[in-house]
Write a structure and sequence with these properties.
By secondary structure, the chain is an alpha/beta fold. It has 2 helices and 8 strands. The strands form 2 sheets. The chain has a 4-stranded mixed beta sheet with strand order 1-4-3-2, covered by helices on one side. It is globular and about 50 Å long. Pfam families: Glyoxalase. InterPro entries: Glyas_Bleomycin-R_OHBP_Dase, Glyas_Fos-R_dOase_dom, VOC_core.
């Protein structure tokens, strides 16, 4: 049986630039960073999270330039979406959708990384 989602991939043009964005602007941790013959493998994650994001490039075996700058289907959760929006905006993160309470009962916002990969962030309503 599958026990958890271990990692998801996000395709980026430049892994070093992406690493700076995810660690400095989003506050993620580096979970793995290793060099191999012809590739660099980088995984990042929010502090304490189980699932990691692999910062992949088109040079990996399953890589594809068309996967860069797309909707990722990745949603994050926060306890205070307005504070997160303010902090990330101050750090230079570009939001494509400002926080808004949705009819299904969660706060929702969307932002993009340095390559325009789009992510969502939710805040449950108590």
């Amino acid at each position: 049986m599958i026990s958890k989602i271990a990692q998801v991939g996000v395709y980026v043009r430049d892994q070093n630039e992406a690493l700076r964005f995810y660690t400095e602007k989003l506050g993620f941790e580096i979970r793995e960073h290793r060099e191999g013959p012809g590739f660099t493998w980088i995984e990042v994650a929010p502090p304490g999270a189980q699932t990691t994001i692999t910062l992949a490039t088109k040079d990996l075996p399953v890589g594809d330039e068309a996967k860069i700058g797309r909707y990722t289907d990745i949603a994050f959760e926060t306890a205070d979406i307005k504070a997160l929006h303010e902090t990330y905006t101050e750090r230079g993160v570009r939001f494509t959708k400002d926080p808004e309470l949705q009819p299904y009962g969660k706060w929702f916002a969307a932002f993009v990384d340095q390559d325009d990969n789009e992510f969502f962030v939710f805040q449950p309503v108590d």
